[in-house]
Specification:
Length: 234
């Protein structure tokens, strides 16, 4: 059973998130909070598997709460709920250890998938969020966009072939176990590859690595399980 905390200052949003998660028999909501400070306190008390946080809340916002949760209860994964127009907040949250990003207006199934992915140790970027982050990073113009893409590809090209395979699936939101099954590897081997990838890319967490993968166009196009999937070009 995946244990969840929900934090949002709007009661209707909390009720909606709870209702969506309640349709999954493998997920249970153990606590709700109306602001970031309360969320941190309840996470420290309940030790949930995942905290689902609104990015913008009065007082202590979701980004500050994510940082404190990462510091005090690192076993709890953090999923951020965002709206369009919050690109700066998303980039800040990446730096504070959030590993899942979902659009509030997204499909209910995506919320469940994101929570399950983060609970399983994966990074989960809603495709819309990933596109917004990459677009925001390239907002300085075509030249800057090309430069950032080239820089991201250079960082990815510096990885070993196997690490590039792992990074691609990581960017697609797969957990270590799922990547292991796709690449016919032991899960411990995938975990070691992920640690090496983070170090060699110079990022702190899987979500930041996933952004690099998306920016470099190194995320596999959906295809049949097994074998090497072709990479999408952007």
């Amino acid at each position: 059973m995946i244990r969840i905390l929900i934090a949002d200052d709007e009661p209707m949003i909390r009720a909606g998130v709870r209702a969506v998660l309640a349709t999954d028999p493998g997920i249970t909501v153990v606590a709700e909070a109306a602001d970031g400070r309360e969320a941190v306190r309840l996470v420290q008390h309940h030790r949930p598997d995942v905290a689902v946080l609104d990015i913008r809340m009065p007082g202590t916002d979701g980004i500050a709460a994510a940082a404190e949760i990462r510091r005090t209860v690192p076993a709890t994964g953090v999923v951020m709920l965002t709206t369009f127009g919050e690109d700066d907040y998303i980039l800040r949250a990446l730096g504070e250890g959030a590993t899942g990003f979902l659009i509030k207006s997204g499909d209910p199934e995506e919320l469940q998938a994101g929570v399950r992915a983060v609970a399983d140790g994966a990074a989960y970027l809603s495709p819309k969020v990933a596109a917004r982050v990459v677009a925001h990073l390239a907002a300085d113009g075509a030249g800057a966009r090309a430069g950032r893409r080239a820089a991201a590809r250079a960082r990815v090209d510096a990885l070993t072939a196997r690490e590039r395979d792992v990074l691609g699936f990581l960017g697609g939101g797969l957990s270590n176990g799922q990547i292991a099954r796709r690449l016919h590897l032991a899960e411990g081997t995938v975990k070691a590859h992920v640690s090496s990838i983070l170090a060699r890319l110079g990022v702190d967490n899987r979500a930041a690595a996933a952004v690099v993968a998306h920016e470099a166009g190194a995320v596999p196009v959906p295809g049949p399980p097994g074998g090497r999937a072709p990479y999408e070009e952007r």
